[in-house]
Give the backbone structure.
Amino acid sequence: MTTNWKASLEVAIKNNINKVSKILNNYSYIENLSSKLTEIKLKVIENLEYYLDKCKESIEKNGGNFYFVRNSQEAHKILFNLVGKNKKIIMSQSMTAHEIGVIEYLTSLGNEVIESDLGEFLVQIANEKPFHILAPALHMSKEKVAELLREKLNLQVDKNSSIEDLVRLVREYMRDKFTQADIGITGANAIAADTGSIILVENEGNARITSSFPSTHIVVAGVEKIVPTFQDAIIQAIVQSAYAGFFPPAYISVISSPSFTGDIELRRVSPSHGPKQLNVILVDNGRIKASKDEILKEALLCIRCGRCHFHCPVYKEYGEDWGHSPYNGPMGAMWSYLVFNDLQPANFVKDSSECLECMEVCPLKINIPKIIDYIKNKKS
């Protein structure tokens, strides 16, 4: 970790708080949608198996392939069959993929796996852990990024290069990676059970390219991303982007099937210009068990907006060291236990009940302090 990460974090905190405040003031309906989203997600959490079956039915009806896996070992078996060895893989940001070790596993088979999200890419070439769930390279200064690009990629940058220069050079470097990739792997911001549609929210455009350029698209997501309807999925996309401080987002992609065309005699023929295959891997890894726990199930409401991090005094002090990668910060204290059975991040907090700010700023009002205290009383 760079030595001046606290200074970088303070700038990010100020920017995020100001942005979210302006968004909520300018788009008054978003707070109402947040309350509605809590009800929507609780409905699924309380009947996850039913919505998993419904999701499977919808995805397969549309011509996609559906896989439910209980843990990383099962996920790796599916990935071996779908990917194999010695492939070029482009990957957009997916916390669930990091959770189950997708990059490490696929790389061990001789595949080249490149992160396409700028922050994830910088963390990858630096061989570091993500600092924040939405802004993985939050701790890196402009000068640090320039140094990385020069030393790791031999790009022509120096300490005087602007942020615009750095972004442009990475964009140019990544173009060949996109066009040469055999397989694209993405996460999902939401999955609609009634239509089987995958919703991707982004600003860079990398997830859109990752999901459409390669001949095979693989989605890796947790079962908590399922919502009942297509309308609900769009609501989740709106709320997440708003509370992340980026609304309206540059792109919302909807992927419901492999590519197809109906332009000749209105007959549906697949594939067309996009991927030949859509494979959706939904991961349990402790989520279903948590859904049956009256306290822990509330953690499944988390939509990964990352807002709780910016209001937490513990995160401001310890940063990425608080949590089990890729989950850190207040939400990471919950999720480190939920998926890794790691008690340490919760025990890291001396008395979480004294500070309730993470719950107050959470769009879904998750009682994070209560869940952390509950975990602290557990035995591994």
